[in-house]
Amino acid sequence: MSDTNEKFDYIIIGAGVAGLASAQYAARGGLKTLVIDISMPGGQALTIPTLENYPGVYPAVSGTQFCQNMRDQAESFGAVIIQSEVQSIDKVGSDFKIVTRKDSYIGTAILIATGAEHRKLGVPGEDKLEGRGVSYCATCDGPFFRNRKIFVIGGGDSACDEAMYLSTLTDDVTLVHRRDVLRAQKAVADRLLANPKVKVIFNAKVKEIKGEGRVQSIELEDTTDGSVTEHQCDAVFIFAGMNPVTQLVEMLPKDEGGYIKTDDDMKTLMPGLYAAGDIRSKSFRQVVTAVSDGAIAAHSAGEYVRNLKAKK
Ligand code: NAP
Questions:
Q1: Which of 17, 158, 245 for mutating ligand 1's site (highest number of atoms within 8 Å of CB)?
Q2: Whose alpha carbon is nearest atom 21 of ligand 1?
Q3: What is the pTM of this model?
Q4: How far, CA to CA in Å, does 245 sit from each of 8, 116, 266, 279?
Q5: Is 160 a catalytic residue?
Q6: pLDDT tens for residues 128-146?
Q7: What is the pLDDT of residues 182-199, one digit of tens each?
Q8: 137 CB burial (10 A radius; 0-12, 13-18, 19+)
Q9: Ligand 1 site, CB within 6 A
């Protein structure tokens, strides 16, 4: 590792839509801004087949196109976006030191926007058959199962949206939900329930995913009477919610779900350290709310940086 210690006003960790929006606002507002992500910019939004509920983006675009536009827009204002794994964040005087696998950087203000990652079911067969029919991304893996028998697990917006998308690839989609009512927003749930290509099994949980070398069947347990049924299938797409990625900021207070607590200005308890997007404790997680968080964080960080500079 080289120890460059290049200094930035604002360093954003995570280039999902919250991070990219914050980068655009900060760079446009005159902050020297660096964005670091372990993978390509866009995060979860990259997997949205059609982003149809972002105000003003009409007709709808793909998540990939939306993220590319956000990246181009942030870079056009001077934000620097690099791909690297951040290993630590440490307070050094009034600044923060960010150590990545390759380099280190100094930032006056930091935004943690590392989002959330897919929650696993933790059932037998899930790990063994991941990439062999078990998937957490319909856009990525759906096309491999064109005209095949697909099961979707979960009752939230993701499960319903992705089941709708998968029904464009095959007529044989079954969504399994552990309760008798979907968690998804009403418009999303209603559209799913009206789709003739999607069968819904309520009150059932996955007991096991079976197969030799590839998914061949799924075992379900009825939560009302405990009966177990086995269903032949070729793929199981799991959308059981998300876990926030908070390993870099274990020192910050979290809510009962493990999400980072901030105030309305995206400030955490540590001065100069902000949080935005799906990693943050809030009630409504959408692309539009992540983008809003990012813009607010940039505004707060700008004030913080300018105040510190004025005191020096
Ligand atoms: P979510 O809303 O947390 O839903 C997760 C679903 O998985 C729930 O139905 C949950 O069941 C079920 N589940 C959890 N653990 C399970 C287990 N072990 N076995 C079986 N089922 C299990 O997660 P999400 O759908 O990924 O959405 C995350 C956030 O992104 C939400 O805020 C959502 O609104 C947002 N989002 C929005 C859109 C959109 O606007 N179109 C699209 C995607 C995501 P219970 O209901 O019983 O808890």
A1: 158
A2: 154
A3: 0.86
A4: 24, 5, 17, 7
A5: no
A6: 999 999 999 998 899 999 9
A7: 999 999 999 999 999 999
A8: middle
A9: 53, 121, 153-159, 161, 178-179, 183, 188, 205, 239-242, 285-286
